[in-house]
Design brief:
By secondary structure, the chain is mainly α. The protein is globular and about 40 Å long. The chain has seven helices and no strands. Helix 1 packs across helix 5, helix 4 crosses helix 5 (77-91) and helix 5 (77-91) packs antiparallel against helix 6.
Amino acid sequence: MSGARRKARRRAVEVLYESEVRGISVEDVIKRRRAQPEPPINEFTESLARAVDERRGRIDELLEAYAIGWTLERMPVVDRNILRMGIYELLWAEDIPDGVAIAEAVGVAKELSTDESPNFVSGLLSRMLENKSTLSL
């Protein structure tokens, strides 16, 4: 997977993070980001952030169910949004292989979060993958 795609995923997580922290819509964050030249925001970033946002209710239900010992509220905001992106790509992005969805989420966690986060992200997404065929989307 290209470095450009990883950067675009990282930016999508940043959009989701900013939306949550500032209490504004993903669309408003995208508009604001488009208006500033740096960092650039591309079509993949925008469509990924919008897709995650559209399915956020279901994604958060799954996140609550699979995050053993964690509530959504207790998770660091950045991890929560990395996981939202990973869950979306794992379950709904048919053009992204399962292994790539997990590896990319783990990679973004390595770049944006704590030392423990990549293992947490990997473990949770791997559990979801094991049960993917039984999840009602």
